[in-house]
Design brief:
Chain lengths: 325, 401
């Protein structure tokens, strides 16, 4: 293991963490702020990835586009497309509460996956889209990873600052009020339906952006990437582990879970050769175990939601108002 | 409580950091496979076949001056996320000189695009059949030992036309395998040869009934149904229901359909009008040598992609030997060890190959799955035959051109 190798691996891991952190931030707006149980992250991720791929690749006869635009337009397009797709879905599905919304959103993500896989004129079907330009991708291996990390981090920081601002603004307080007591918020004259839709769309746009960053990093996107395990449930675990309702928690959760997911394979590779195949499942077990431990001992996550006003400092003595689920 | 969690996390990371102690004398190759994920059932046999090649190399003298060849297994889980992660670890943490795998086309494209092409590492996939891999801008570093679906689909179309098939309907499984084959078939049969395809429809796997799909396919008056699917899965259901309901008279399948499950389930007497294409090489000397060796280590030689996995790993070892164990020359060496000219090397003949390479003689690997003469894109042309169901299993009707 050379030093340069370690650097390259660290860069790669950091890029992946940043992309997952964007997805977790998007989910935090939906679940952490507004209490919407969206189990269809993979769907919005895919819409973003494919939109950006179509917008930024050179023209191809077999499918829609490509339009050969600058990647920045691809990424903006990805956010817009994910938001546009989220709007009718939210309009219909947000009438459901908690578990029912989860079921509906899983279904929606599956529909999106099947459309992408089947509609060749749109997405090149199961073959996927290849040759997506990576910003600063022509320079050497390490350099181009550094360049991409800088870009991804810049995007993540901007997203974080904006989301954090919203969280502390009256809008964020209103969202939490709606989440914690819908009837009270309604009685205060808040348009609950519209606000929930707003949160759903903002979250979906961030997920779409995450998808676009992922597609450009790999220079390709295929339907195999829209796998609920790695594109939906892993993100959920990140947010719950990191602390839902806390933006820094979402980012920390992304880092911790991805590091365990990725690094544990290096550890299991040291097991004797005859267990090599079985050992690959240990990381699935580790992630599950981690989730169990957190839910058992620290249900509010590593970094809990910051509390305000009278509740500040009352964490250690739980009282009725502190229980926000 | 926080400290406990942090301690746990820190402990895990410390363990992983301490655990990796490299042995510099070894030459490592990465074996990336879909160990977990959708092809978890197929992957172990493929990995075992590749490890057999590694084992043979080490038993017969290793790489260079007796350096040990080590296969490092990575889990690409059949998706780009884990595929790139596994490739990054193989290249940077393990320091491999080449990669055999990943198994699924999507993981191949992503791992090539973000890791191996920029890092200049040669990748050879035993099962990535997507035509997209052909066109990768890869500086000649991406190879495969399995033909692109394009080859088979086109060859099958030409053969059917030659055999006098008329109107056909095409049903294909909606994944990269089925779609790739079906599109290549369509391009050749309808567009290039002027044949008539009355219906062209994808189906999803795992449904209990495909009668409505079949009724739709039968519209347009085709008497032949071409199925691009797996004979031990959905393809079997479709074939059975088409036979039961008399939707079509003749049936044609791709290599996925040439499965013993079809004969066992439906009976040879019902399959008189069923033909399927499949790679030849079934009877070659190379294949016999591989089969014997693989049985010797407890493997099942009939497992899907076992032969291509073995060939991929053996070719990687040959190329490494030719390049002197250095990763830089592997891409060029790969083209030299299997281009149709030179002394023939068959599976397991590592010692012979090693001596010939040392003497500077040109060698040509003739693999278990075919001759593997790479073209400029790193693809291998398939050699296919058309098979029918005889009294004891499948019999060759003709070679497909």
């Amino acid at each position: 293991m050379e030093f340069l190798g370690l650097v390259n691996y660290a860069l790669f891991t950091a890029i992946f963490i940043a992309i997952y952190a964007l997805l977790a931030l998007g989910l935090n707006i939906q679940w952490g702020f507004a209490g919407l149980f969206n189990a269809g992250i993979a769907g919005f991720f895919a819409v973003g990835a494919y939109t950006s791929a179509v917008l930024s690749t050179p023209a191809d006869d077999g499918r829609l586009g490509g339009f050969d635009l600058h990647f920045v337009f691809g990424w903006i397009g990805a956010m817009l497309a994910a938001a546009l797709v989220a709007w009718p879905i939210g309009k219909i599905c947000l009438r459901f509460r908690s578990d029912y919304l989860a079921i509906a959103s899983i279904g929606v993500a599956e529909i999106i996956r099947l459309v992408i896989k089947s509609e060749e004129v749109l997405t090149n079907g199961a073959r996927g889209i290849n040759g997506i330009p990576r910003p600063a991708g022509d320079i050497g291996y390490t350099e181009s990873q550094i360049a991409y990390l800088v870009i991804v981090l810049a995007v993540l920081i901007v997203a974080y600052v904006l989301v954090e601002r919203q969280f502390n603004a009256p809008w964020g307080r209103m969202m939490r009020a709606i989440r914690d007591n819908e009837d009270a918020a309604k009685a205060m004259g808040k348009d609950v339906e519209f606000r929930r839709l707003e949160a759903f769309i903002f979250g979906a746009a961030l997920m779409g952006l995450g998808g676009a960053l992922f597609a450009h990093f790999n220079r390709s996107i295929t339907p195999e990437a829209i796998d609920p395990m790695v594109a939906t449930f892993l993100v959920w675990i990140m947010l719950i582990l990191g602390g839902s309702g806390n933006n820094r928690g979402a980012i920390l959760g992304a880092a911790v879970v991805w590091i365990i997911w990725s690094v544990s394979e290096i550890a299991t590779d040291r097991l004797p050769h005859e267990y090599a195949i079985q050992a690959k499942y240990i990381r699935l077990f580790l992630i599950g175990l981690m989730l169990q431990l957190v839910l058992r001992f620290r249900p509010e996550g590593l970094l809990p939601e910051p509390l305000r006003g009278d509740l500040r400092g009352s964490r250690r003595t739980p009282k009725s108002g502190a229980d926000h689920s | 409580m926080k400290t406990k969690i942090l301690a746990l996390a820190a402990g895990l990371m410390a363990a992983t950091a301490l655990a990796s102690v490299p042995a510099q004398a070894d030459v490592k190759i990465g074996l990336l496979g879909g160990v977990s994920g959708p092809i978890a059932a197929m992957a172990p046999a493929m990995v075992d076949a590749a490890q057999l090649a590694v084992q043979q190399v080490n038993e017969q003298g290793g790489i260079g001056d007796g350096e040990k060849l080590v296969g490092v297994l990575g889990d690409s889980a059949c998706n780009p996320q884990n595929g790139t992660d596994a490739a990054t670890k193989a290249v940077n943490i393990e320091g491999v000189s080449g990669i055999v795998g990943p198994h699924c086309s999507g993981a191949v494209l992503a791992a090539a695009g973000s890791v191996t092409i920029p890092a200049g590492i040669v990748m050879i996939t035993p099962s990535g059949t997507s035509p997209e891999i052909t066109g990768l801008d890869d500086n000649g570093t991406v190879f495969r030992t399995v033909p692109s679906d394009d080859y088979q689909g086109r060859a099958l179309a030409r053969t059917l036309k030659e055999q006098g098939y008329g109107k056909v309907a095409v049903a294909y499984l909606n994944n990269d395998y089925g779609t790739g084959l079906a599109n290549a078939f369509k391009a050749e049969y309808a567009d290039a040869l002027g044949g008539e395809i009355t219906q062209f429809a994808a189906h999803e796997e795992g449904k209990a009934s495909y009668r409505s799909n079949l009724a739709e396919l039968a519209k347009g008056g085709a008497d032949t149904l071409v199925i691009f699917d797996y004979g031990d899965g959905t393809g079997l259901t479709i074939l059975r229901q088409a036979l039961e309901n008399g939707f079509f008279e003749k049936f044609v399948g791709g290599d996925g359909m040439k499965s013993d499950a079809v004969i066992n389930e439906l009976g040879a007497e019902n399959l008189a009008s069923f033909v399927a294409s499949s790679p030849v090489g079934e009877k070659s000397e190379s294949l016999d040598m591989f089969n014997e060796a693989f049985k010797g280590v407890g493997g099942d030689p009939d497992a899907i992609f076992a032969t291509t996995s073995y060939d991929a790993a053996f070719l990687m070892a040959l190329a490494l030997e030719k390049a002197g164990g250095k990763k830089e020359g592997v891409a060029a060496a790969m083209l030299e060890v299997s281009n149709g000219t030179g002394e023939a090397i068959r599976p397991g003949e590592w010692k012979k190959a090693k001596e010939l390479i040392a003497a500077g003689t040109a060698i040509d690997y003739k693999g278990a799955a075919g001759d593997h003469n790479f073209d400029a894109n790193g693809d291998v042309p398939g050699t296919y035959a058309l098979w029918e169901v005889g009294s004891d299993g499948y019999e060759v009707i003709m070679e497909m051109k």
